[in-house]
Amino acid sequence: MVKKNGWDYKGERNWRTRVIYTTNMSTTYAAGRLAQLKDPELQKVAPFWMYRHGGSSDPRPQHVKWDRLVLRANDPWWQTHYPPNGWGCRCTIQILTERARGLDVPNRIGTAVDDPVDLDADLVVGADGLNSLVRSAFETQFKPTMDYFDNRFAWFGATVPFDTLTQTFIETEFGPMNAHHYRFAPDRSTFIVECEDATFRKAGFDGLGEEASAERCSALFADVLNGTKLVTNKSMWRRFPKLWCENWVAGKHVLLGDAVHTAHFSIGSGTRLALEDAIALVHALAEHPSLEQALQAYQQQRPPIARKIVDAANTSATWYETFGEKMGLAPMDFAHDYLMRSGRMTEEKLRQIAPQFAADHAAHRAMAD
């Protein structure tokens, strides 16, 4: 084969043939292994995979970048990135359930916890969302405050695959309405409908069930939905909660994510914040000799950082409370006002990340003046 293709040896004899053979064998094995791991029943008990770099002395930079990336087992990313990725690749995946077993950590997926007070553990992490059982059990220590924004919203799905996060603002016979929509699968998108309380009541949404609400919203947003119907999944109308806990630690109990704070979906940082909370907690545990010191560091260091994002999210949400009034602005002014809504954007930063828009808006303002 070497002689036929004119290849020169750069190593010991048969090295190229061995590389081709080994790569083909590992790829074939990986394909079979992936088929096994995609079993729906297996994914119920092993829902998360971690990409692990193989430790090559001359690694591919992209593989190093993927190291320790954790995604759900059914994430489409694995279809194109399940290792090996190229010849000589020694990368693997780690099923986090197996990792936990290797550390003698019992997995009790699907086990209901009625009272966190009775849990026998050195550390109890409450990552149990807005209606946190852990937070409720130690409410006097965590000191939460809860309020709600005035706007109403309902979370639907759509069969239209929108390319990017898009906002659609419309004027209806009931009042102004808005939809936040973005693709989450090749043929599916999230479609959040939002309106002010007066519009909500005038449209009669307060008297409609889930399916009737979806039908009315489908009709109102028929143009952007291309005439398709919205998909329901507990798509009831709600007001977004504003939650913040003064304390994130109560003895051996600690909170993270939506259990300790909320961030309005208009800036899309809820998941990011939860993951960063978890990372901060892990770092604190690794960097301090005692659990008490680690939790004290988590309490001191993490809330101030998260607070900046939460405040920006609240400011953004407040912008939506009166978006109907802003729809009367000229398109360029409306877009500019929207970009500035969270308070984190400055004119200088805008010129850096969107120079063409910044220039167009400046020209527009000059003509208006």
The CATH architecture of the largest domain would be 3-Layer(bba) Sandwich
Q: What's the story with the biggest beta sheet?
A: 4 strands, antiparallel
Assign the structural class, choosing from mainly alpha, mainly beta, alpha/beta, alpha+beta, or little secondary structure. alpha+beta
Count the E strands. 12
Report how far apart the termini are: 75 Å
Structural domains: how many = 4
Properties at a glance:
369 residues, alpha+beta, FAD/NAD(P)-binding domain, four-stranded antiparallel β-sheet, three-stranded antiparallel β-sheet
What does this structure look like?
- With 369 residues, this protein is an alpha+beta fold.
- The protein folds into four domains: 2-102, no CATH class; 119-148 and 245-320, FAD/NAD(P)-binding domain; 152-220, no CATH class; 329-368.
- Helices cover 43% and strands 17% of the residues.
- It is built from 16 helices and twelve strands.
- It has helices spanning 2-5, 15-37, 40-45, 61-66, 77-81, 96-102, 133-137, 139-142, 197-202, 210-220, 270-287, 291-321, 323-326, 331-339, 347-353, 355-368; strands at residues 48-52, 70-72, 92-95, 124-126, 144-148, 152-158, 166-171, 176-185, 188-195, 241-245, 249-250, 253-255.
- A four-stranded antiparallel sheet has the order 6-9-8-7.
- Strand 7 and strand 8 form a beta hairpin.
- Helix 11 (270-287) runs antiparallel to helix 12 (291-321) and helix 15 crosses helix 16 (355-368).
